[in-house]
Amino acid sequence: MRATFPFAVTALAAAVAAQSGTIPGLDGRLTNNASPSYFGRRGAAHPNGEVAMACSYSMCNPGTVPIQWTAPMNPNHPMFAMSIVRESNGRFEQITDASTTYVKHAFGAANSASTCGGTCQSSGTGLRVNCTDVYGAGLNANRFYLGPASEIDPWTGVWNPIGSYFDRGDPEVAPPSNTDGVRSLQSTSGGFPTDAVKNRITLKEQDLLTPGTFYYCCHIVVRGEDGDLHWDNLGHRQMTATWTGTTWTFAVPGAFTQGSVLQQWTGAQLGNGRNGEDDGHFVVAVKVTPLAGGTWHYEYAVQNFDNHRGGASLRIPVCPTTTVTNITFRDTNDDLLDEWTATRVGGELVFSAPASNPLDWNHIYNFGFDCDIAPEAGDVVVDQARVGPGALSVSIATQVPAGIAEVTTLGPGCGAPAPTLATNGLPLIPGPGFALLVATQPAAPVFVYAALGADDIAFGACHVYVDAGFFLFGSTLADGNGDAQVGYAIPNDLALEGLEVTWQAAVAIAGAPLLGFLELSNGLTTTLGTR
Q: Parallel, antiparallel, or unpaired for β 500-512 and 49-60?
């Protein structure tokens, strides 16, 4: 099993065009979230009600230009999205819904001492360069500044106040006042005095009582910030929740951590991908657990970080010959009529969303299944839910049960010239004619070694790529052209799918660099598969 690329160094595709609407030098950074606080409950008696909470956060300006910061109804200000997630029973799941947990619109920058280095500029507008702004939990619970996430483009940071929730009011005012760009929402609107939970971070008490590890998360959206700078806009902390008999209290046992909260999922591997310069990122975490009888459970958590068009389907490569069972899906609401459905389409397991429930930003959805194919490196694909600029889909490197046959080269050989090791094709099951090919000097003795693990041990200019468990697989003499072949007949046994074998050839040549009589080829790793 080969690991996917580490999350922190996953390469983005080279941009073919600049991201539109960016402001050179603009950069926001989330530096803390803290003080999770209780703001009331509603509904049935404990433990069957809902709880409101909010937390504080701070951000700084490590860029070279001020961040615009004017209150709604002006569109030029940062916005702050919140969510709560839980790791429980092998799954990492979001327990808040962005359709009911509204986004905070900032209204003024304090410009205090910097939390990200440098000296806070003493003059200017907005959040000045090297300055920090902090919003307490009380301000972040103020419904006067909370609006729906669906109105915001998280990739560009664009929010249009015309016809917005603030413009329409709650309850909505009559036309034309609901689209005139004048704030209709007031702090006494919409039953806010009697409903302590509405629009705030909303949690079901039953979710808080489920055993697990909780995290509260924040995501800042800055209009005009380049997408390459978005990663430090995310952050999270561990949280505990306790019912005292009359109220809930929250504590913070862990430090603030930047980046996707999915990195906290024990034993998971992360990858990410985005729609070029046209739209934002999806993050995929996968945890593969061996089960009895040669099967594995695959559990994926897919986060829409900042992709405006959203996800309409998740396509996972699956070996066509495997049986997939125990298929599961989890979103963030309780509506059983808008669940994603799973179907086998060719060599893929496809989870498809109804039009009413795409994977929108500030959401994590969960997908799981069992099958008898071991994990290997591969890409899942998220198809975009809405029309817009850019490609129709986004690929993310992760682990999949695809049964893909592969040949990977491991470093150079040594000699003058070094012998080369290759294959006569992909290591497919079955593969009775599969062979290892060596190109070297005419009539030279050739020895092909195999191992179930790879290594890289240097002996001067030579490198040994098979691990300590290597064995001699076959030997032969090169022909008059210097070509040699050692056969590796792959049986018709699907239990071998995903098996990795590392190969290296040694050639006996007088005066060679290793021990005075051996040249070594490059290394190869073959992964057995059905396609």
A: unpaired
Q: How many angstroms separate the CA atoms of 163 and 176, rounded?
A: 10
d(C-alpha 265, C-alpha 271), whole Å: 13
Greatest distance between any 2 Cα atoms in the chain: 94
Q: Residues 357, 452: one domain?
A: no
Residue 7: inside a domain: no
Measured between alpha carbons, how far is 230 from 234 in angstroms, rounded to an integer?
Answer: 8
Query: At 70, is the secondary structure helix, strand, or coil?
Result: coil
Range of the domain at 207: 30-157+196-262
Q: How many domains does the chain have?
A: 3
Q: Tell me which of 240, 262, 284 is where a domain ends.
A: 262
Structure-derived torsion over alpha carbons of residues 328, 332, 333, 338, reported in degrees to the nearest 10: -50
Q: How far apart are CA 447 and CA 464, in angstroms?
A: 14
Q: Distance (Å, rounded) from C-alpha 439 to C-alpha 446?
A: 10
* Angle (CA) 130 131 132, round 5°: 130
178-187 contacts at long range (C-beta below 8 A, 24 or more positions apart): 181/73, 182/73, 183/72, 183/73, 185/144, 186/144, 187/142, 187/143, 187/144
Cβ-count burial of 479 within 10 angstroms (0-12 exposed, 13-18 middle, 19+ buried)?
A: exposed
Claim: this prediction has a pTM higher than 0.85: no
Residue type (1 letter), 384: Q
pLDDT tens track for 279-335: 999 999 999 999 988 899 999 999 999 999 999 999 999 987 789 999 999 999 999
* DSSP for 12-58, written as a single string: PPPPSSPPTT--TT---EEEEEEEEEEEEEEESSTTSEEEEEEEEEE
Looking at the fold, whether 383 and 450 belong to one and the same domain comes out as: no
